[in-house]
Design goal:
single chain; about 160 residues; alpha+beta; seven-stranded mixed sheet; 4 helices; globular
C-alpha cells in the first residue's frame, strides 16, 4: 500500500473491478444471500444514485460501498441499506472502515438519516466493523432467508445520523 488508500466516487466504468470484489464476497457464503453477480444495469437500478464509493490502492479498486433503498415508500427516503465489500487480498487494512466512514459522511450530505445493515451472525469481522463506526445492533432475524438449503439468521444493525 505504497500510495495509501484513495476513496473516490464509483462510476459505471468501475463495474468490472467492483463486480470481481462482489463475486469474492458472494463466494465466502458470509456476505450476502446473492448467488450471482448482477449485470451493471440491474445493480444500478437497485442502488441509490448517490453514496457509491470505491477504495483504490496503486490504481486498483480494492473495495466498494453503496446504499440501496429499503423501501419505495417516500417516508423511508432517508433510510439506506449498506453494502460494503473489500477484496480478500486487502482485508485487515482498515479499508472497510474507511469506506463505511466515507459512506456515513456521503449519506448525511444526501439527506439520509439512517443506514442499516443485515449481517450473518458468523460474519464477526463485519459486525465489529459496523459497531466500530457507530452502528448498533437493533435486532435478530431468525431464519430470514434460505441459502443453499440452509436457513440463515441475520443481525440487523443501524446507524442513526446525529446531524439529520
Amino acid at each position: 500500500m505504497k500510495n495509501g488508500i484513495i476513496i473516490d466516487k464509483m462510476l459505471p466504468e468501475h463495474w468490472l473491478q467492483v463486480s470481481k470484489i462482489y463475486k469474492e464476497g458472494i463466494s465466502t457464503g458470509m456476505a450476502t444471500f446473492e448467488k450471482n453477480i448482477p449485470h451493471w444495469e440491474e445493480w444500478n437500478a437497485n442502488h441509490l444514485k448517490v453514496c457509491r464509493i470505491i477504495a483504490i490502492i496503486n490504481g486498483n479498486i480494492v473495495g466498494w460501498a453503496a446504499l440501496s433503498p429499503v423501501s419505495s415508500r417516500c417516508v423511508y427516503k432517508g433510510v439506506g441499506e449498506v453494502s460494503v465489500y473489500v477484496s480478500g487480498e486487502f482485508r485487515g487494512n482498515r479499508i472497510g472502515e474507511k469506506l463505511l466512514r466515507k459512506l456515513i459522511t456521503e449519506s448525511e450530505k444526501n439527506g439520509i438519516w439512517t443506514i442499516q445493515s443485515g449481517v450473518f451472525p458468523e460474519n464477526i469481522a463485519s459486525i465489529k466493523l459496523h459497531e466500530k463506526v457507530g452502528f448498533r445492533k437493533i435486532g435478530y432475524r431468525e431464519k430470514i432467508g434460505e441459502f443453499d438449503g440452509i436457513w440463515k439468521d441475520n443481525i440487523l444493525l443501524e446507524r442513526r445520523s446525529k446531524l439529520i
